[in-house]
Amino acid sequence: MTSSLESSIAAAATLIDEASAITILTGAGISTDSGIPDFRGPNGLWTKNPEAEKASNIQYYMADPELRAKNWALRAEGALWANVEPNTGHRSLVRLEERGKLHTLITQNVDELHQRAGTSEGKVVEIHGTTRKVGCLECDYAADMEVALDRVRAGEPDPSCPACGGILKSKTISFGQNLVEGDLLRAETAALECDLMLAIGTSLAVSPINRVVPVAAQQGAKVVIVNGEPTGFDGLAAVVINDSISDVLPKIVG
Ligand SMILES: [Zn+2]
Fold it and tell me: Residue 238: which residues within 8 A CB-CB, separation 6 or more?
């Protein structure tokens, strides 16, 4: 087994050496080593905080001020993983940008850990948004999350938009909300223009963003998948590595 893992790692490293435009898709698996729990596992965020799951549905969130207040309180006390740092996996991917090979990094994560690790803001597509910023559901007001949390800590249970009085929410895409059209377009373009698609820490089960993998494969890009478990698109990949992301990435980025 060891030797086949080693040869897969060597094969992935060679494909990366040969590539000139790499598009990366990352999912929750790259952030677990930063201490961000999954959502539905035994210690999952939503298993432990069912109110947080309910608050991730836009209809409940908009309808229920008490639910919003509970959610703001959880955020303000740091229960929704406010104080996490990038790990070896995030930091390794910065190397691909340094080598001039990174086309676009698409992430399903909402933790901004890629940017904090050093990947340029302009290279990242946050397809499901970010918890580090807050926005108004009715107008264009947006600010750093901390601005809203300071208001919560100062005694406002459900801070409203300072511009229009509307409901504020983290700038994540909630259940029931559409993805941002421009982000989807950037992701599709990145899939069409890359010569290597590197999918990391995602089961590739979430549609429509998982489609970037077959789109890239179809136009001739090589596909490399690094994930804890098999995915539904392993058959399209030149190399599949099922092992620890933090262990594997430093060995393949060059
Ligand atoms: Zn507003």
Answer: 11, 15, 222, 223, 224
Model confidence over 118-146: pLDDT tens digits? 999 999 999 999 999 999 999 999 999 99
Active site residue 128: yes
Q: Are residues 43 and 56 in the same domain?
A: yes
Strands, E assignment, 52-190: 102-107, 124-126, 129-136, 142-144, 168-172
Count of the separate structural domains present in the chain: 2
The residues placing their C-beta within 5 Å of ligand 1, an ion, are: 136, 138-139, 141, 161, 163-164, 166
The phi and psi torsions of 214 (rounded to 5 degrees) equal: -65, -30
Ligand 1 centroid to 175 CA: how many Å? 21
- Whether 93 and 77 map to the same domain: the answer is no
Rounded to whole angstroms, how far apart are CA atoms 207 and 174? Answer: 14
Domain residue limits at 150: 38-83+129-172
